[in-house]
């Protein structure tokens, strides 16, 4: 048994890991039944500090083992091996309505984990920790190559796994917030997929007026033609507005024939016409802005803009035209898009068309709109620019922290499994890539 007055030992294994890989946190050499607080701290690339903390009581051997011991209070509760990551929130006094996103994927997310005597809920910077360690969370596994794409009018970033290839490909599209978001594509490459993060909502509104089917077709063709990509094994992946793109071009473009599609928190009820730009579609949605509500904190609830789901087939993607496997991921507390109602209508449309055997739906109680790779902090609301050049607003995305964390972990594992099933043929599943 550990003796009173020993020096506590804190270990995190692996201390360097992929972002979606679990770690094991253990505190040893404590007195039996000692109350302690485990605390995580991260400074974002925007210089904001994020933290999480959990209250524990050491066992008879003077140990706290996070993957099996219950947290009795803090930013999370219960047996939660990754609670020190997914329950992170801005420290008191931070700027309001922040969202934590990794911009520089070639560097790790550095997290400081410390253990303190007693059950603390504040003032961590004013106390001396019993022990501390630094951990690194990476989106890019060793050997993953990052290639900037500015070819044929297409702007994006291609991430290539290590090895000779050819690799199955994924064209990855985020939502209406715009910009080039790379971290999910980098993580996909760490799992064996050649993933291209595509920029298609630009800060320049004039540029957006030119982004339509030809742009996405050129991006798909560019990925197909890459010598390290298997041309006949490419998937489309979209979130939010990215789902509108994925469903529209899959249903109507003669040049884009994906092997499968993954759609997260989106809708078919705002399709992009063959001669339309994404900007025109977005403007059509924004014309319905009066249907948006605000909550008691003046945060915009956008989901009503698409309701009711239209019955007119000309006002939505004709789901009977989908001829490849389709995975829908839905948060039942999505306050940004009418994802639940859209998923129900898509299922009904596919049943009537006789292609519902292609559809798999994952629906998560208590999850919000921004369902991302696992262990990232839940973002219930954050500042958002509805259209380039407009003033920032606060958008409510929805979700509760624990159910949302469950949705992110479960859906990511199933997304990887879905992509492997439909893209990798006899390739063995590559569910973890240790650093």
TrEMBL record:
Domain spans labelled BAAT/Acyl-CoA thioester hydrolase C-terminal: 215-423
GO aspect biological process, one term: acyl-CoA metabolic process
Residue spans crossing the bilayer: none
Pfam family, one: Bile_Hydr_Trans
Residue positions of the active site: 240 (charge relay system), 334 (charge relay system), 369 (charge relay system)
Domain Acyl-CoA thioester hydrolase/bile acid-CoA amino acid N-acetyltransferase, residue spans: 20-151
A molecular function GO annotation: fatty acyl-CoA hydrolase activity
Family: Belongs to the C/M/P thioester hydrolase family.
Listed name of the protein: Acyl-coenzyme A thioesterase 1-like
Organism: Salmo trutta (Brown trout)
Native organism taxonomy: Eukaryota, Metazoa, Chordata, Craniata, Vertebrata
Gene: LOC115192739
